[in-house]
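User: I'm putting together a small comparison set for a docking exercise, and I want a reference complex before I start. The sequence is below, and the ligand is zinc ion. Could you produce the 3D structure with the ligand included, as structure tokens?
Assistant: Of course. I'll restate your input first, then give the structure tokens for the complex.
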Amino acid sequence: MDFQDRRKSGTATNNSVRIVMITTPTPICNLVQRRLLHRAPRSWLRRLLSPSGNESFLMHQHVVQIGDPVLRQVAPPLRPEDVSAPMVRAVVDELKKNLDRYDAFGLCAPQLGLSARIAVIRCTEKQLSMRTEDERRRLGMEPVDFTVLVNPHVRPIESSPIVTHREGCCSVHGFSALVPRHREVEVMALDETGREFQWKVKGWTARLVQHEVDHLDGKLFTDRMVNDTLQLNYWREVNRRGGDFRLGFGGMKGISHRLYPYFLRIRD
Ligand SMILES: [Zn+2]
């Protein structure tokens, strides 16, 4: 049974669980569903849980890949009063788990199969330590605490130049390309409590924000990349192993963190 079939059946599997389903739920799913529907406010969350009363809804525990229609939808915004609801907290928790699992800088709800304008970004000291001093300076990387962006909008800072660097995406797993982005932007968003905030960001952080907001508008970095720069990040490894190379799609667990910097040795 492929991924689409599982969605239709509404059966929870190891790879597609979450905030549950509806059509033919297991008793446990049924219980969770009733609890979530009971606790969810009317409007956005209720529609999200049961868009037409009896449709299935799944949020995955893995990151969906390019080709999945959910990545091409313009995600609907949340109402500010819905932001602090338990359902949204559950989505943010799942995004955080997957950030760690994929050792990612940013992730958004559509990448877990949920069309909603929720994104998270971060840049940890550990992630910085995997780049050389020169790379960090060239890309403008600096530590960023885990940040939730709900309904984010991005405005380029006037006179901010366009800079082109290599970037990848958990939904185009294993590939990267040169992508032009504004070096400095201002982001307007709600935080996880529903409070509005504005944030001026530059360098790598500005790139992360633009990448995630693109996701929420149904765009991927492949829509903006310099065409002839797309590469499989492991192409050398494919040659070294005589073609016997397999790419997993369930996070970074398959690759030792000791080897991770080696795999990430990517040049513009
Ligand atoms: Zn992405």
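Residues 169-171, 211, 215 surround zinc ion (CB under 6 Å). The first helix runs from residue 3 to 9.
User: Thanks, that's exactly what I needed.
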